[in-house]
Amino acid sequence: MTSIDTTRLSTGSGLIARLYAVLHNIRALNDAHKTRQALQRLTEHELDDIGLCRGDIDRVCRPDFF
C-alpha cells in the first residue's frame, strides 16, 4: 500500500522556514532599536511615570532571541 506524506509542503520548506526566522529576527531588531530610541528621548520624569529608569532601557529593549 502506498501512502503520501501531506505534513510537509515540499523539500524546500526548511529553507522557507529559516528565511521567515531570519526576517522575524530582523524585524525584532528593528523594533528594539525604535523602542530604545523612543525611550532614550524621554525625560527622567516621563520614564518614572511608566515605571522605568535609564538603566532599564537596555533590558526592556532586548529582542527575544538574544
Provide a concise account of the structure shown:
This protein has 3 helices and no strands. It is mainly alpha-helical and 66 residues long.
Give start-end ranges of low-pLDDT stretches: none
Structural class: mainly alpha
Number of domains: 1
Cα Rg: 20 Å
- Helix proportion: 55-70%
Explain this structure to me?
The longest helix is centred in the middle third of the chain and has 29 residues, at 13-41. The chain has helices at residues 13-41, 44-49, 57-60. It is rod-shaped. The termini are far apart. It has 66 residues and is an all-alpha fold. It has one domain. The chain has three helices and no strands.
What labels describe this entry?
59% helix; 3 helices; 66 residues; 0% strand
Topology:
Elements: H1 13-41, H2 44-49, H3 57-60
